[in-house]
């Protein structure tokens, strides 16, 4: 547990940042009045997500490895963090879906049928629901975390002299 204390801390920070992001999306109207823009603007989440991954890996390098971390050590840390994010994802998605913005699914279902992204409400409901989002966010956070770590560690690793 001591070995992954930093990853646990950053997984919690990341989950909180995700909830704040979704709350800001809701406040800005992206889950209601401006739902047509949600598809595009929600992708901006990648910037704080990458930033948090970088901060987590820097924290691990500085405070666990005393400023010297190999690519492999960083990759393992990132994979552990990604697993933790994946584990927290269904809970985070539940809070988003049922506490922060319970109107999102009905709104996006209605609008996606109006715009003919889906032919029927049932088709849209099959895609826009808690279970579907919980599964896809779990997979996304794991894959995103591992890929981001693999790239970030190219720059953060300690090079041999």
What's this model, at a glance?
With 161 residues, the protein is mainly α.
What order do the helices and strands come in, and which of them pair?
Layout: H1 5-27, H2 35-41, H3 46-63, H4 71-100, H5 104-114, H6 121-127, H7 130-156
Helix pairs in contact: 1-3, 1-4, 3-7, 4-7
Pfam family, one: DUF4199
Keywords: Membrane, Transmembrane, Transmembrane helix
Protein name: DUF4199 domain-containing protein
Structure description:
- The mean pLDDT is 96.
- Helix 1 (5-27) packs parallel to helix 4 (71-100), helix 3 packs across helix 7 and helix 4 packs antiparallel against helix 7.
- This protein is 76% helix and 0% strand.
- It contains seven helices and no strands.
- With 161 residues, the protein is an all-alpha fold.
- It is elongated, with a radius of gyration of 18 Å.
- The protein has one domain.
- InterPro entries: DUF4199 (IPR025250).
- It holds the Pfam family DUF4199.
- This is DUF4199 domain-containing protein.
- It comes from Sphingobacterium suaedae.
- The chain crosses the membrane at residues 7-24, 39-57, 78-100, 133-156.
């Amino acid at each position: 547990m001591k070995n992954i204390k930093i990853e646990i801390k950053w997984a919690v920070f990341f989950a909180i940042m995700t909830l704040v992001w979704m709350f800001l999306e809701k406040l800005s109207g992206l889950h209601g009045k401006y739902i047509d823009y949600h598809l595009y603007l929600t992708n901006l989440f990648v910037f704080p997500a990458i930033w948090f991954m970088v901060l987590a890996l820097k924290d691990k390098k500085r405070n666990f490895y005393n400023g010297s971390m190999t690519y492999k050590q960083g990759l393992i840390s990132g994979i552990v963090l990604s697993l933790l994010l994946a584990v927290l994802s269904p809970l985070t998605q539940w809070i988003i879906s049922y506490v922060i913005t319970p109107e999102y699914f009905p709104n996006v279902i209605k609008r996606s049928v109006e715009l003919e992204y889906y032919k029927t409400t049932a088709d849209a409901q099959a895609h826009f629901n808690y279970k579907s989002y919980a599964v896809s966010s779990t997979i996304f956070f794991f894959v995103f975390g591992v890929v981001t770590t693999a790239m970030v560690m190219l720059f953060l690793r300690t090079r041999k002299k």
